[in-house]
Amino acid sequence: MKTEPKTATLPAYDVVVIGAGPAGMACATEASRAGLSTLVLDEQPRPGGQIYRDIEASDSGRRGILGKDYEAGAHLASGLRASTAEYLPGAVVWNIDSEKQIDFSAGGGSRSVKAATIVVATGAIERPTPMPGWTLPGVTTVGAVQILLKTSGVVMEDLVMVGSGPLLWLAATQLIAARTPPKAIVETVPAARYREAAKHLGKALPGWRYLAKGFAMMREVKRAGVPVHRDAEEIVIEGETAASAVSFVSGGKRQRIETAHVALHQGVVPNQQITRLMNCRHRFDKSQRAFLPVLDEHFETSVDNVFVAGDGAGIGGAKSAAMRGRLVAMRVAEKAGRPVSGERETLKAALRKDAAVRPLLETLYAPSEDTLSPADSTLVCRCEEITAGQIREAVALGAPGPNQVKSFLRAGMGPCQGRMCGLAVSEIIAAAKGEEPSSVDYYRIRPPLKPLLLSELADFGAEEAPRQAAE
Amino acid sequence: MPQRIDGSGETVRFTFEGREIAARAGETIAAALIAAGETTTRESVVSGAPRGPFCMMGVCFECLVEIDGVPNRQACMIAVEPGIAVSLQKADEVAA
Amino acid sequence: MANRTVDLLVIGGGIHGCSAALHAAMRGLEVVVIEKDTVARHASGVNAGGVRRLGRDYAEVPISQRSMEIWYRIEELLDDDCGFQRAPQIKVAETEADLDRLKARAADLRAMGFDHEVVLDRAQMREHLPAVSDHCVGALASLGDGFALPYQTTFAFQRKARSLGVRFEENCRAETVERVGRDFKVTTERGVFTSRKLLNCGGAWAGQIARQLGEPVEVAATAPMMIVTSRMPRFCTAVVGNETRPLSFKQMQNGTVVIGGGRRGRPNPETNVSELIFSELRQTAATAMAVFPIMRGATIVRSWAGIEGRMPDGIPVISPSSTEEGAYHAFGFSSHGFQLGPGVGEIMGELIATGRTNAPIAPFSITRFAPEAGASGSSPTHSQGISA
Prior knowledge:
Chain A is an alpha/beta fold. Helix content of chain A is 36%, strand content 22%. Chain A folds into three domains: 12-125 and 269-336, FAD/NAD(P)-binding domain; 141-263, 3-Layer(bba) Sandwich (FAD/NAD(P)-binding domain), CATH 3.50.50; 369-440, BFD-like [2Fe-2S]-binding domain (Arc Repressor Mutant, subunit A, Orthogonal Bundle).
């Protein structure tokens, strides 16, 4: 009845790594060193991912501002360049089928490759931060501020940073180093959180370097004279056609800071698009407050020979990501019958040590109640402009989960395909039903993973697929 | 106003809504627009409300613009090229 | 857990199950619907939303007409507009030979007493479809058809039914179906349900129920593939098909374009997963661009394929059981059941509550697949091309 497309003629690799951040670069370098034919597909024009974005192009001045940890990415990038792994930048993966055929768009056309093993190294995205005014021009994520600095050396002189998390403090110190300190930091960490987080202090001590760095960053912000408004809530970004001010309640009174530039952050969460598309099992991690792919001890998903390396496996930061990338490569080599490097146990121990600080950070910087449970009038789905209230109403009518809410309201149906609202929608539905996000689950992710021109699909695989008569 | 912290880099010129924008070679259209103080790059197809670049890493699709007449292009994922004509993606041109 | 014996147990929470449950409840029956996943999870919630009489199998025309009458007053019935829009359904001909076949069909229908399908010459077609490609020569149209939002519609049937006392048990798969005395006993992982009457609306999974009733039929699981684009300027107000190439094409009110029409993905009814086959779907893309050149600039945002049941002869089973009195079937709508949902639900409600209906459902009898039925009881032409 159906003629399956011929895939025998497609280029095939032992390992296809998707993403060229720390995990992807380290994994591909290690895999090719083990003799596995390796391909790296990455959306960006140069390796580094978001954390080491444009690491190869940055000069000493830029590196001085971005700091030592950023500079560490240079070794990973040169390692990838020196390896025998094929590296294809500007490649946007839009589908992966159950036979591990990967379809991607590059240079205006689509092509396919076959993989024996797929390593998903697509990292993290910023957690949705729904709040009044977050769609106004001039409002970005904190990650966006860092990317502007890394790629273009562009800074804002009136930036107000709102939210919480290590990345926020890091970006603030980088801006201070660039001689444009933020106008203010509005931190949403409730006072009581410090006590809760302190319970994890003992176990976090092996990660004392991270703690020391954290305190150093906060001291630097203080030294630079940046006003820090703690325990802030009820945040509203004001403006008609663009952001004009941030207002919030802190210290028992409402305050207002005029600015055209606001950067939001509530931590980062795994980018689940590919693992969801491939029907890998996921679980909701209460500490990270995010969905994570279910993985075995070697970072293999519930789908055979599909691995997740880096922050996509659970947030661990850049150092952990690189280590996990290498460990995945070692496991893939092992499964292919190659000798296992003696370094593996050392790496595993280093990984455990690197992760020691996480429970403390996850407790301290858990997302703010305001963003987890936005007011009814707040837009949650930015693309289709669906409010939290509409989502709650759909649940009240009987829509049982995110997919029904999506079908009913179009939440998550716009071009971002749910990336910017998915977690928030799951949280809101769960709260409305009095359940956990784990039981309401998440959007089903459909191809194409990124919007694709119809004309590109029409030309796709035209040579290899025999044209069939109408049914 | 946004500032550039270093003076280096080759300049590439293109237009946004007919206005000339000076960008650095290799940077994305969205970065160049933000550096030039252009924070609004599209109108929401639902309400017509103004929107601008949000994530700068290709996930939010807020920075969709029209490039040389082709709509729905991600300004944060496409590098500047000399002479391209970039325009605001207007709601009424996308949907009635 | 044991449940009180109810009048009617419906297996399957798709549009047919929900519509039949509503109509049975409107006739005073106590009804429970059990659904193995969630209501509208499969084809009923994710089809292309065509409300189409055009191009139907001749046997389906009368029930499709009856269903259309309900669509016109759907808001009155369900307190929800279901996103229903009246719009012409138009099947374009790319060649004169195609157009001749369409003319012959219109003539056949007129002879049968139906005049809803009309031939459009090139100029008339272009009036309805200004953006259609110049090479198209004419079309067959049913001007009073339309489209609706499938999930919203099925959900509205569920809510209205629930408001009349119908109980819905979701995530509740019927494992065994037995006769116990005069009643039916359906065992699920969430308890046993007993009822005086039983209706099988199990879609792609209906064959398992029919088999347990002693009526084995072949229901193939299929996965009709669909694409939706990002919003585009309004250029098309009709729902468009094609006489020879599979196509179902419509621009929604919000400007997005939904394209489907018969190219099939890979269904896996055991896991509920359906996989897209892009080397097939590319032909749908090519057809859409051939008929509407403006689509060259379209961007695909999402594609999907709901799991649907298809009968060997391409028309559904709408029928009392031939083996168990009190059991009924409405399944196997073969990718064109959405428009029929309101009407067939009404027919089943009538049949189950009163024991009779004057609707011409004989061609859809399950007995046509019985071994002794010999040659297939299929009717003259089978629907093709546009899917629901």
